[in-house]
Amino acid sequence: MKRVPALSRHQHRTGWGAVAAMLLVVVLCLWMPAFSQETAPATVADPAAVPVAAVPQAINYTLEYICWSTALIGSIVALGFAWKFYQEMLASDPGTPRMQEIAGYVRQGAAAYLNQQYKIVGICFVIISIVLAVMAYVLKVQDQFVPFAFITGGFFSGLAGYFGMQTATMASNRTAAAAQKSLNQGLQVAFRSGAVMGLVVVGLGLLDICLWYAALRWVIPMFGMHYSLSHITVVMLCFGMGASTQALFARVGGGIFTKAADVGADLVGKVEQGIPEDDPRNPATIADNVGDNVGDVAGMGADLYESYCGSILATAALGVAAFSNNEAMQLNALLLPMSIAGVGIFLSIIGMFAIRTNEDATQKNLLAALAMGINLSTVLVIVASTGLTYFILGPSYWTVSGSVIVGLVAGWLIGKWTEYSTSDEYKPTKELAAQSLTGPATVIIGGVAEGMISTWFPVIVVCVATLAAYACAAGIDFSNPATFAMGLYGVGIAAVGMLSTLGITLATDAYGPIADNAGGNAEMSHLEPEVRRRTDALDSLGNTTAATGKGFAIGSAALTALALLAAYVEEVRIGFDRWNAAAVANLTEAGYYKLSDGFFIHYNGQGNKTEAEIQKNSAGYLAMPLDRRDARIAPSWEAVKFDQPGKLPDEYFSDRYDGAGEPELALFGHPQKLYFDKSGAVAKNVHSATLLDYANYYEATLMNPKVLVGMFLGSMSVFIFCALTMKAVGRAARGMVEEVRRQFREKPGIMQGTDLPDYTEPVRISTQAAQREMILPSMLGLITPCAVGIVLGVGGVLGLLVGCLTTGFCVAIFMANAGGAWDNAKKHIEAGNFGGKGSDAHKAAVVGDTVGDPFKDTSGPSLNILIKLMSMVAVVTAGLVVRYSLLALGIF
Questions:
Q1: Contact yes or no for 519/86 (Cβ under 8 A)
Q2: Could you say which DSSP state residue 591 is in?
Q3: Given a cut of 90, is residue 655 above it in pLDDT?
């Protein structure tokens, strides 16, 4: 078999030739729009002073095609290079027969777990799809394509995790074999294998987005169905719910599996039996290696897949909202995040080819090489996003590119802080290791405290980044309603910027578990100590790069959730449209009709009842809260009962019309005449109402008890979720500990090497426990937004999302950093400090690491997904809440 543990000189020339070709594509993508615009973009001297919808312009269809093609080609190129790296990995030296045998055990265990997981997840997806179909086809509160979008989102998310895991399980023995030659060759095999995960995630994610856009924008109209840009973005956003659902199952299930095996292996193997980590005499060691793949590779891939797609889709929806009544700019704002993501793929691949070191490289050289690749991609994305923003949005909005830079910097800062808080090269973890001298209790106390105090810096960074991203897009006047939506678009585009280099940042993250498994393979294959030293160096390097990956995951969760919070309001707007259409379908005469205490419609009695004609011949209006509560108005307004669509008496309206052709509303007998859709008017058209108008309509303030209760419920959900996942790990670990103890007790020859341990039973125990225990936490994220929405309405859901976001963000950082500090404190002692391996300090540190394992690998990272899943579920069920909540029904 051909051996290519490192790139040959010819391969380097070929790789840089590909890089040059891709650079040419990037340049063309940046400059072609400038020469192909059919209509020059209108400019505004001061965009903060003029409503963004005030400058209409013609749609540039050439620009649309170029931007969409850039994203599509980027996704295909990502998948192509993922295949290339996969083939290079397969062609490398697989090692000795014993190394291949051990890797085969791990691969079989991981495949068996994922197959079982996908069966259970498939059942859940069928049930959820049926519920969504009822919402779409029976209740008419959701688009008919949402059930299919949900399925494709989950399918591609699971596919990304599966491909990444398959590559990782086949790369561990090859990485160990390459490490026999040199540290650099081990890095090359491990990193290129990790790059498969990164490129598959961004490639499949952007491909799914491009295909749905093409279907809704170009294919569906061929059959007589025409969707507005707002409608398109909302439908596309809904497939993110499928990705989030699959990601939560993968993260929770994989986290429970890996930590149950890890805890059992550590407590019995290291502490009780005193054998090294990954010792082949430990029955749980194969299950531990399987867990690294299903949790840290497949789980992380699914996690960042949904973050990547969610950030692009939420930002597209906000862009459409920011340029209301200006379809050309709406289209450009929708295409910008897709274009940045597409170009980001090319630039990530350039960074991958820049990662090269000498054969005698030290660990410091390796870290510098990885940093060189990431930093190069980041700088190129900054340059490219500036050019893309200028040519797509026009010179009036070039400052939106500053939001992209803000996102990139914020992710980098959070990653560096995570590294400082968890690495044993810095003071916090060294001090925590020193506390092991006085026993497990002080280690636990110190780790909890360190995790808590480490939250301050990321919170400050996200707060500053949010304000800065908003200001870059809309100016520093945060109270200007005309630019409010544009500011939120800036926050969303910051999340896109943070994840635009995901191809390479996820590669550095997925590389870590591969190096970890390579170390286990070397240990169980009894390779020379130098090989284990090299794989440990690669594993330690992976822990450092994983800190940056977790920083991007947590930071992107916060910014994406903020964007989804605003996108939720856009889906509420669509919910009113669907309610309007359902009511008009049953009307026979023109007039104004009250549908609820706060919503009425006007139907002119013309046209047929197709969707397009209904939109043309009817309109919905929101009765703002102040007017609904006016004592002089309430009696007349309440006189029209809700039990069936009620036609409002003609005397409610005058015969005169305002400048926009709308009749005056006589305020139900009040002498003052007010107009529709004017500042201070009693009614707001659902299409021209701003995000702030909807916030006012639902009284989304802290003075509203429903909002406050929703915030409490959101915060509570975070702790309930963590408790469920932690208890799940505890129960699964107990079964694992008992099984490992049983084998040592019943087979005393294991320790002498005369008996072989049973590796399959621990894998079975972890698999069954993970499948059983992952359901309840996952259901919490799916059911809570629906229940809160039905009982408390839109305001309660907004409160729920805010509470879940703020509390979940802080708890996720606390758990990730505390767990990482405990883990590296143990490694610091194992390196020879404070008595080294086998000492009382080491045993105390192992106990701390055992507590930290579910912190950093199960509950903590799963919170990122919980935050976004609740937001996605809220978006998908917004139409149901708008129409059928107790508030809408007049009950509560």
A1: no
A2: E
A3: no
User: What's the mean pLDDT when you consider all of the chain?
Assistant: 81
pLDDT at 246 over 80: yes
**Phi, psi (5° rounding) for residue 591?**
150, 180
Backbone φ, ψ for residue 414 (5° rounding): -65, -40
| 339: Cβ contacts below 8 Å, ≥ 6 apart | 29, 67, 70, 71, 388, 392
Q: How far does Cα 391 stand from its chain's mean position?
A: 28
Buried b (16+ CB within 10 A) or exposed e, 150-175: bbbbbbbbbbbbbbbbbbbbbbbbbb
Q: CA 159, CA 242: separation in Å to the nearest integer?
A: 12
Cα–Cα distance, 553 to 189 (Å, whole number): 25
Region of residue 527 (phi > 0: left; psi between -120 and 50: alpha; otherwise: beta): beta
What would the two tokens of residue 69 be? 């093609």
- Residues 500 and 404: their CA atoms lie apart, in Å, by 9
Question: Look-up: residue for tokens 């009307």?
Answer: 587
Please state whether 605 falls in left (phi above 0), alpha (psi between -120 and 50) or beta: left
- Of the candidates 659, 684, 56, 595, the one whose C-alpha atom is nearest the C-alpha of residue 324 is 56
pLDDT at 616: 84
DSSP strand pairing (663-665 vs 618-623): unpaired
Q: What does the longest C-alpha to C-alpha distance in the chain come to? A: 99
* pTM for the model: 0.85
Confidence of residue 662 (pLDDT cuts 50, 70, 90): very low
Question: How many C-beta atoms lie closer than 10 Å to residue 223's C-beta?
Answer: 7
The SS3 of residue 195 is helix
Residue 168 tokens read as 């990782």
Q: Count other Cβ atoms within 10 Å, centred on residue 31.
A: 12
> What residues does 591 pair with on adjacent strands?
603
Half-sphere exposure (CA, 13 Å, Cβ side) for 818? Answer: 29
836: tokens are 């080294």
Q: Rg of the Cα trace of the chain? A: 28
The pair of structure tokens assigned to 105 is: 């055990």
Q: 603 has which bridge partners?
A: 591, 618
Q: Are 6 and 178 in contact (CB under 8 A)?
A: yes
Given a contact cutoff of 8 angstroms between Cβ atoms, the answer to whether 715 and 643 are in contact is no
What pLDDT does 271 receive?
Answer: 74
Region 291-317 average pLDDT: 85
- What would the DSSP string read from start to end of 177-190? HHHTT-HHHHHHHH
* Nearest by Cα to 56 from 292, 327, 456: 327
Secondary structure class of 42 (helix, strand, coil) = coil
Cα–Cα dist 230/248, whole Å = 28
- Give residue for tokens 């013309």: 606
d(CA 227, CA 220): 8
For the four alpha carbons of 134, 135, 138 and 143, in that order, the dihedral sign comes to: negative
Helix (H, G, I), strand (E, B) or coil at 231: helix
Beta pairing, strands 646-647 & 591-596: antiparallel
Torsions phi, psi of 525, nearest 5? Answer: -90, 0
The confidence score (pLDDT) of residue 677 equals: 33
Whole-angstrom distance, CA of residue 465 vs CA of residue 98 = 51
If pLDDT is split at 50, 70 and 90, which confidence band does 681 have?
A: very low
With a cut of 60, say whether residue 50 has pLDDT above it. Answer: no
Nearest to 176 by CA among 532, 541, 511, 546: 532
Run of H or E residues at 602: strand 599-603
Provide the token pair at 187: 């890095």
Cβ(164)–Cβ(200) under 8 Å?
yes
Q: Are 264 and 136 within 8 A, CB to CB? A: no
User: What b/e string do you get for 727-751 counting C-beta neighbours within 10 Å, with b at 16 or more?
Assistant: ebbeebbebbbebbbebbeebeebe
Cα distance between residue 423 and residue 416, in whole Å: 10
Per-residue pLDDT reduced to its tens digit, 54-99: 445 678 889 999 999 999 999 999 999 999 999 999 999 998 898 9
Residue 218 sits at the vertex; the CA angle it makes with 202 and 76, to the nearest 5 degrees, is 25
